[in-house]
Input
Amino acid sequence: MKSTRAFQPQQSDPPSTLLSLRNVEDLRWEMQQVQLAIARRAYELFETRGCEHGHDWEDWFRAESELLRPVSVSMSESDDRISVRANVFGYEENELRVSIEPRCITIMGKKEVSVTETAGGKVEYINWYPDQILQFIDLATEVIPESAVVELQAGLLKFELPKAAQQKVETAATAA
Output
């Protein structure tokens, strides 16, 4: 019998949380809001420069860097699976949304604003660092999204993705 977990954690490992996947279409709808905010900011940068053409990519990348937090990603591949690690330090399970397609992973996150109450009223904590993530990870090999295991452990999002080609080979061998 196969385990549904991709790996067995060691006793010294910090606790991890299994994440549930989002519907791809629902996540695309949410992504549009972020992409529109980037487009608006890029256009503001264009206007600030006096509507000078020829800097569209520069404006877009600057807008992304102002609005989105960078995510470092590492990937490894074996005969039967792809393992992906994404650094989402500072984000909690309820602040992340993940979807997996056969050749793409999408990670979206938004930090919730923490509110501190004082004697004079509420004071919001403002963090000037971008509070959003929007990361697309292209996969070189097709995977089986339904069989993926996604865990959040100490700020690291871990994906264990079984390859589709390996699954087809195993199915053909058992059918024969």
Observations:
- The mean pLDDT is 83.
